[in-house]
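Review the following:
>
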Amino acid sequence: MENINLTLGILFQLCQSLLVVLLAPLLMGWVGQCRARLQNRSGPGLLQPFRTLRKLFHKDAVIAHNASPLFRVTPYILFGCMWLAAAIIPIIAVDLPFSPAADVIALVGVFALARVFIALAAMDIGTAFGTLGARREMLVSFLAEPALLMVLFTASLISHSTQLPRIVEALAHHQFVLYPSLAFAALAFGIVLLAENARIPVDNPNTHLELTMIHEAMILEYSARHLALIEWASSLKLFAYISIGIALFFPHGIAEVGNWGALPVAIIALLGKLILAGAGLALLETLLAKMRIFRAPEFLGTAFLLAVLGLLIHFLLGA
């Protein structure tokens, strides 16, 4: 029986790994379609991200003569880090073989590793835009990571564990309890999600203006398969952050330990949550305006303040 459960666990882990890498571009397509409808435009189809990736993979890469091996290997490292992060987060079940690796501090480390490589690659060629984007990216991450850690620590103190599977079990599969501290943490996490994924109001993924771009400035020198991997990694990063938000704040519907029969329901619940999250993200980007880069510290400082308030409420009220 134990061998059968292990085999099932490995199969479902492989299915989740394949599922996230396919759903991530679809999520980007859904967000783009929702934004277009909210702005009274027809917009691209759901499969447009796949068409873009296919076109890029069939092109020949153009690389600068002075590019180092770091520049060439960064897209693969970036894609691998984001795929790893998205694949180990418990989104359909809490007892998959790789779920114990989903420690919240380790996940922050994976995101930081990818960020360091893309920033170094942006400065490798020596262009003004690449260096500008890398500096702005480091500024945003310097302000966003403390807020993210405070959010994760709040959930960890409630569940007495830093592992996402244990957090999901504590919040979803035990007695239903309302935690005011998680409400503040959820607001802070939403701000961090927008900043870390280069979304409005911190950045605009659809612009190439010098005064506004952050992420786009770092990848201007990439083309063909390298650019395809970076764009795919960006969609995986957004998927990973939304998955973390689901695990922390909306974990209901994720299958319990040993309940393999609940996996189809868990997959349907995941799709519903992703649809709502994508529509909510598109609504926020439609209502908000792009802010000046110099106001980003105030925006992310608000996230840190909300996260700290959530942590203090838990310490003072135990809720």
Notes: The two ends are 40 Å apart (CA to CA). Residues 147 and 304 are 4 Å apart (CA to CA).
